């Protein structure tokens, strides 16, 4: 089978995991030929993946600006927060069993 490699070998050559290769095969981005129970990739088809732009998670940039909390926030005047009220509702009434 000249010119064909296994999906595991393809993963090693591309520098990605074999699970990612299976995802690419499943989505149709990487064509395979099945020889018995084994999926084989043409070596020339590896260029389809290498040339793709934006493969993988984008690099982290500067940290995102802090978002304001949803719901009520901690009040400086001694008021309770939404979370604290939820905790109070979860307390079991000692008089009831």
Strand residue percentage: 5-15%
> How many helix segments?
4
At the third CATH level, what is the topology name of the domain at 4-50? Multidrug-efflux Transporter Regulator, Chain: A, Domain 2
Structural class: alpha+beta
Spatial ordering of strands, largest sheet: 1-3-2
Low-confidence stretches: none
**Succession of helices and strands:** EHHEEHH
State the name of the first-level CATH class of the domain at 4-50: Mainly Alpha
* Helix percentage range: 25-40%
> Roughly what is the average pLDDT, rounded to an integer?
76
**CATH architecture designation of the domain at 4-50:** Orthogonal Bundle
What is the strand tally? 3
Describe the structure.
This protein has 97 residues and is α+β, with helices and mostly antiparallel strands. It has a domain at 4-50: Multidrug-efflux Transporter Regulator, Chain: A, Domain 2. The protein has helices at 7-14, 18-27, 46-50, 82-90, and strands at residues 4-6, 33-35, 38-42. A 3-stranded antiparallel beta sheet has the order 1-3-2.
Question: Which descriptors apply to this entry?
Answer:
97 residues; alpha+beta; Multidrug-efflux Transporter Regulator, Chain: A, Domain 2; 3-stranded antiparallel sheet; elongated
Give the topology:
Blueprint: E1 4-6, H1 7-14, H2 18-27, E2 33-35, E3 38-42, H3 46-50, H4 82-90
Helix pairs in contact: 1-2
Question: Would you kindly provide a brief summary of this structure?
Answer:
This protein is of the alpha+beta class. It is built from four helices and three strands, in the order βααββαα. 33% of the residues lie in helices and 11% in strands.
């Amino acid at each position: 089978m000249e010119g064909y490699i296994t999906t595991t070998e393809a993963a090693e050559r591309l520098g990605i995991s074999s699970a990612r290769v299976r995802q690419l095969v499943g989505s149709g981005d990487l064509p395979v030929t099945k020889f018995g129970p084994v999926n084989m990739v043409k070596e020339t088809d590896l260029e389809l993946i290498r040339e793709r732009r934006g493969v993988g998670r984008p690099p982290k940039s500067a940290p995102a600006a802090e978002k304001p909390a949803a719901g009520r926030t901690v009040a400086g005047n001694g008021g309770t927060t939404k979370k604290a009220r939820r905790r109070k509702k979860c307390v079991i009434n000692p008089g009831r069993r």
